[in-house]
């Protein structure tokens, strides 16, 4: 994999034209686009299609589905025609929900004749610290909770997890090499940390074993997003 292919740029914005322009500008400098709740709530599936075709890049659809198994399976079927490479669900939805999502992804791919989207389970959001977890009644440190959720997600058919860079090395030791580690909370030394709590630089995260990096504001809020992407690519060894 080329170093730039590891990076999914998070296009957290509500407007199609802005997201299309950013995707087109970054084509060749990143491996794919990540579209999430802000964009999907505003523009829906039609907006997603427009952005993907503007950059001709793989799609990571970060909807973080979290509901009862039947509802999540239905949502997975509903987004399958968008042919995302990756789709997120929340691991906290439990074993039956993870299994329902994985089964729905496989069934729908076979029915539509598409490549199967890879289901990624979000473990503990990178914006949460150990203290934040305690405040919502989770006594375990974040790293322990991430390990527990990742093992559960793997056992129930998920293709990988979303975790912070701080847990990558632990999960690499626990889980098979083909279990995808998708890693946000990436902050080059020159970028603001913002609301993220468990962060690391891009080079360090890949050295620890991350497959893909999710990077938003360090690229999209930079006055020159293409130059920021090139700086990150250099740090990854391009
Ligand atoms: O635990 C998580 C899960 C998802 N994200 C998403 O990644 C990007 C990060 O954007 P930055 O601007 O680089 O902070 C964003 O779209 C989140 O929704 C995450 O940060 N942490």
Written account of the structure:
This protein is α/β, with parallel strands linked by helices. It has a single domain, classed as TIM Barrel, CATH 3.20.20.70. 45% of the residues lie in helices and 16% in strands. The protein is built from 10 helices and 8 strands. The protein has an 8-stranded parallel β-barrel, surrounded by 6 helices. The mean pLDDT is 97. Bound molecules: the ligand O=c1ccn([C@@H]2O[C@H](COP(=O)(O)O)[C@@H](O)[C@H]2O)c(=O)[nH]1. The ligand O=c1ccn([C@@H]2O[C@H](COP(=O)(O)O)[C@@H](O)[C@H]2O)c(=O)[nH]1 is lined by residues 10, 12, 36, 62, 122, 125-126, 162, 184-185, 194, 196, 214-218.
- CATH-derived topology: TIM Barrel
Proportion in β-strands: 15-25%
The number of distinct structural domains comes to 1
Q: Structural class from helices and strands?
A: alpha/beta
CATH superfamily: Aldolase class I
Radius of gyration: 17 Å
Total DSSP helices: 10
CATH architecture: Alpha-Beta Barrel
Query: Mind summarizing the main beta sheet?
Result: 8 strands, parallel, barrel
Reconstruct the topology from this structure:
Elements: E1 7-10, H1 16-26, E2 32-36, H2 37-55, E3 59-65, H3 69-79, E4 86-90, H4 95-112, E5 118-122, H5 130-135, H6 142-155, E6 160-162, H7 168-174, E7 180-183, H8 202-208, E8 212-215, H9 217-220, H10 225-235
Parallel strand pairs: 1-2, 1-8, 2-3, 3-4, 4-5, 5-6, 6-7, 7-8
This protein binds ligand LLZGTKA7.
